[in-house]
Write a structure and sequence with these properties.
Blueprint lengths: L1 H8 L14 H7 L3 H9 L11 H8 L2 H9 L13 H7 L3 H12 L1
Length: about 110
């Protein structure tokens, strides 16, 4: 986390996107790095930034703890990537725990 803090102090854009449209938050979500995800959010990263929504990245990869953290932070469950929401990606990729999590969240 020290490296992240140093980058932020130097003016790093926490919502910068890679050539594929993913932010650091989306990449952390995809690999289940919840501590990094929470640190990025705490430093001001947008939960819904970039062209590849972090919630969709977590959902597609079956990263339940990351998806939970993103939902707590206000991730947009209606955001789409290639016309599909996080729930639709999770269902297509048979990420049952994510489908159930998103269904419970939508019911609240």
């Amino acid at each position: 986390m020290a490296a992240l803090e140093a980058l932020v102090e130097l003016g790093a854009d926490l919502d910068a996107v890679e050539c594929d449209g993913a932010t650091a938050l989306a990449m952390a979500a995809a690999v289940g790095q919840v501590a990094m995800l929470e640190a990025l959010l705490g430093m001001g990263a947008s939960v819904n930034g970039g062209d590849m929504p972090a919630l969709i990245m977590a959902a597609a990869a079956g990263q339940v703890p990351a998806a939970e953290a993103l939902l707590r932070a206000g991730a947009d469950v209606t955001a789409t990537l290639q016309g599909k929401t996080a729930a639709e990606w999770a269902a297509q990729l048979q990420q049952t725990a994510i489908v159930e999590l998103l269904a419970r969240h939508s019911a609240q």
